[in-house]
């Protein structure tokens, strides 16, 4: 895969931690030139400083995906400094754990700004350059919850359902242009995402099991781009859940409901 990514220009949002950080490192080690985007410059610079062997392949451009001007400058700066954008990875995201009946509307709106309108801004900013190039890849990082719903995650699920719908529509709209659109649907991943999500008195993590390492997701993103995939689903259990949603949604509801209830009982004991 290194030959495929050699000197390609990659932008990764949400690049300072978790899946974004590991994706930055994976692409840089594969030979790409990677632009790190997140809200905080110090966090991004910390990534560069922690990996001096990759310093020549990493560029820091602070950007908040909820701000039009930040996104415009992110893409314009990349073009000015590196000449092109080959791959844009929409990874920035925020979670929420709350019953639908109790989810504060203002917080839900803020979540949608990051998870749905953030990628939309980025896509609209980078597409003119990719159209001019006649090539490019847009990678949207969703979740298994882009397809399967879970109690107390309804608002987050809604945002990821919306992102997947936007991804699939964009793929059809760009057919024949040379620009590919890839959706990546990770399952439970061990990252700081859970500590930073909107939650209201609930534990950060409901599962007693450790999730997959974000480096696994990063490698899957790399393979998805190299193999020109339409969609990347990481785990067997996720594939089974997606299949069950189509074949037997009532059975899937029962399984997810039982799993959630066990997690709630475990949470109440801690």
What are the SSEs and their pairings?
Blueprint (H helix, E strand, L loop, with lengths): L1 H4 L3 E5 L4 H12 L3 E5 L3 H10 L7 E3 L7 H15 L4 E4 L5 E2 L7 H29 L2 E6 L12 H20 L5 E7 L7 H4 L1 E2 L14 H13 L4 E3 L2 H12 L1 H21 L1
Parallel strand pairs: 1-2, 1-4, 2-3, 4-6, 5-8, 6-7, 7-9
Task: Summarize the entry for a quick read.
This protein is an alpha/beta fold and 270 residues long. The chain has helices at residues 2-5, 18-29, 41-50, 68-82, 105-133, 154-173, 193-196, 214-226, 236-247, 249-269, and strands at residues 9-13, 33-37, 58-60, 87-90, 96-97, 136-141, 179-185, 198-199, 231-233. It has ten helices and nine strands.
Structure description:
This protein has helices at residues 2-5, 18-29, 41-50, 68-82, 105-133, 154-173, 193-196, 214-226, 236-247, 249-269, and strands at residues 9-13, 33-37, 58-60, 87-90, 96-97, 136-141, 179-185, 198-199, 231-233. The chain is α/β, with parallel strands linked by helices and 270 residues long. The strands form two sheets. It has a seven-stranded parallel beta sheet, with helices on both faces. A two-stranded parallel ribbon has the order 5-8. Helix 2 (18-29) links the parallel strand 1 and strand 2. Helix 4 packs parallel to helix 5. The termini are far apart. The model has no long low-confidence stretch (mean pLDDT 90).
């Amino acid at each position: 895969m290194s030959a495929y990514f050699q000197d390609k220009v990659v932008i990764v949002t949400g690049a300072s931690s978790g899946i974004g950080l590991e994706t930055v490192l994976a692409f840089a080690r594969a030979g790409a030139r990677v632009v790190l985007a997140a809200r905080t410059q110090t966090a991004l610079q910390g990534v560069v400083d922690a990996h001096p062997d990759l310093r020549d392949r990493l560029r820091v451009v602070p950007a908040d995906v909820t701000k039009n001007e930040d996104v415009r400058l992110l893409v314009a700066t990349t073009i000015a400094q590196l000449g092109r954008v080959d791959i844009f990875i929409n990874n920035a995201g925020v979670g929420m754990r709350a019953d639908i009946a109790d989810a504060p509307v203002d917080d839900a709106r803020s979540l949608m700004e990051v998870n749905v309108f953030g990628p939309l801004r980025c896509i609209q900013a980078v597409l003119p350059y990719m159209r001019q190039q006649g090539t490019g890849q847009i990678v949207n990082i969703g979740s298994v919850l882009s397809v399967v719903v879970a109690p107390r995650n309804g608002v987050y699920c809604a945002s990821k359902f919306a992102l997947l719908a936007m991804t699939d529509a964009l793929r059809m709209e760009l057919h024949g242009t040379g620009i590919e659109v890839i959706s990546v649907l990770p399952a439970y991943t061990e990252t700081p995402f859970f500590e930073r999500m909107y939650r209201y008195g609930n534990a950060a993590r409901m599962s007693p099991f450790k999730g997959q390492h974000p480096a696994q997701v990063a490698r899957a993103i790399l393979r998805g781009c190299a193999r020109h995939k339409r969609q990347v689903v990481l785990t067997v259990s996720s594939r089974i859940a997606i299949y069950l949603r189509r074949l037997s949604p009532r059975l899937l509801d029962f399984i997810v409901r039982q799993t959630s209830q066990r997690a709630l009982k475990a949470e109440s004991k801690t």
